[in-house]
Structures are given as C-alpha cells and as structure tokens.
C-alpha cells in the first residue's frame, strides 16, 4: 500500500482515500472493497460487544528454547512494534450478547509465526471452549512456524490439532476466519480443523507460498492462485465474508449451532 499525508492509495483500484475514510470502512477501500490487513485490537473493537472482551493468558511470553542467538532481542522489538507479548490475543467476549471465546492473530508480531506461546494460547482457548461449552472463533494470519524455536514450533501443530479434537468431542462449535496471509504450520493445523472455515476477501491462504511452488513444479500458476476466492472454489474455504458483515454472520452462526445442540 502506498501512503502519503493525505491518504492511502488502494493497491487494487489505485484510488486515493483519506486515512479516516479507510478506517471508517473497517480498513477496506471505500471504492473497491479491498481488505487491508487489520491488527487484533481493531478487530476486537469491531467484533466484540463494547467492553465485553476479557483477555486471558495475556502474560505468556516466549523463552528461547533452542538458545538461538538474537532471538530475545527480536522478541523485544516485536513486542514494541505490535504492542503485544506474542502473535495472538485470546479472551472471552460476547457478540450480540452471545458468549464466545475469541482469538485474534497479529501479522505484525514476527509475521504471525506460531511458536510455543501462540500454540499454548490457541490450545488454552480451544480447551476453555470445550470446558465452558462456549463456541471458539479464531482469526488467523501467519507466515507459518516460528523458525527461531525449531522443533518446539513444529510441536504446536500436533498440540493445537489435538485441542481442536477435544472441542469437537465436547460438541462445541469451532469457527475460523482466515485472514491475509494464512500459511505454513497454522494452515496445516488448527486453521483447517474448524466446523466452519470462513475467509476474508482476497486473503492469501496456502501452505507453501506461490513462488516456492512455482520453483518446484516449474510451471506458472493461474491468476488468483491461493487467494480466498480460489480456495473457495477448490473447497478449502466454506464461505468468504466481508469485514462489515462478519459480526452479523458470526452472531447467526452461534445461533444456528446453539439451536441444533
Ligand atoms: Zn480500491
């Protein structure tokens, strides 16, 4: 995106809008509906009923399990940049008065990578949902596993997947909103295990990125490869939901699943 003093130039349609108009449209282009990335606090402010969000596990922060040089410094810098202790915020809230466990990932925090803290917080959110019989919704955005934590990052795939299975066993609905971009270990674990898999328009969703795939198969990929619309057509995504409709749709999904229970 190109920014200047007067506003933002949309990367899709090229129109210039002032920052406030874009913010008022929930970080989308007022002209063509392009969805900019959005950070957790802004999402929570829009989604949750006013004042209802109560964060849990907010004090967890990463150690340096494989003693990688420079990792602590990277974590500190990410904490300042994203104003979070790691790449996901989890809490309880209500949406139109209905209780929900909500997790929202941040791409600003080390590319939304999943290390031991992201895995643990997602796990706790899923298990809390199972225990308290509250639906769980997670907004994902991730570049994949946190390389700086080596094997401990990869373990989070199994850990979060088994927590998702517990939620399913408890008969509690699980919802995912795939946001731009959701890739790597997050796609390969808890992001694809929900009962309803939603995506934001235009979001890149995949395991390996298009450049890696192109390099491997030595073929050029079709237009829109791995975008939400492509993944909907291929069956990886159940529905694409525009940002200004998400609150309403999520509220309806909670109702729908409750009445079936
Ligand atoms: Zn636009």
Quick synopsis:
With 261 residues, the chain is α/β, with parallel strands linked by helices. It has two domains: 1-36, no CATH class; 37-260, 2-enoyl-CoA Hydratase, Chain A, domain 1 (Alpha-Beta Complex), CATH 3.90.226.10. Helix content is 38%, strand content 18%.
Q: What structural keywords apply?
A:
single chain, about 260 residues, alpha/beta, 2-enoyl-CoA Hydratase, Chain A, domain 1, 3-stranded antiparallel β-sheet, 9 helices, about 40% helix, globular, binds zinc ion
Describe the structure.
This protein is of the alpha/beta class and 261 residues long. The chain has two domains: 1-36, no CATH class; 37-260, 2-enoyl-CoA Hydratase, Chain A, domain 1 (Alpha-Beta Complex). Helix content is 38%, strand content 18%. It has nine helices and ten strands. The protein has helices at residues 19-24, 40-47, 71-82, 116-132, 151-169, 184-187, 210-217, 228-234, 243-260; strands spanning 2-3, 8-9, 16-17, 54-56, 88-95, 98-105, 136-142, 174-182, 196-199, 239-240. The strands form two sheets. A seven-stranded mixed β-sheet has the order 4-5-6-7-8-9-10, with helices on both faces. Helix 4 packs parallel to helix 5 (151-169). The longest helix is centred in the middle third of the chain and has 19 residues, at 151-169. The protein is globular and about 45 Å long. The model has no long low-confidence stretch (mean pLDDT 95). The chain binds zinc ion (ZN). Zinc ion binds at residues 10, 12-13, 15, 29, 31-32, 34.
SSE layout and pairing:
Blueprint: E1 2-3, E2 8-9, E3 16-17, H1 19-24, H2 40-47, E4 54-56, H3 71-82, E5 88-95, E6 98-105, H4 116-132, E7 136-142, H5 151-169, E8 174-182, H6 184-187, E9 196-199, H7 210-217, H8 228-234, E10 239-240, H9 243-260
Parallel strand pairs: 6-7, 7-8, 8-9, 9-10
Antiparallel strand pairs: 1-2, 2-3, 4-5, 5-6
Helix pairs in contact: 4-5
Zinc ion binds at residues 10, 12-13, 15, 29, 31-32, 34.
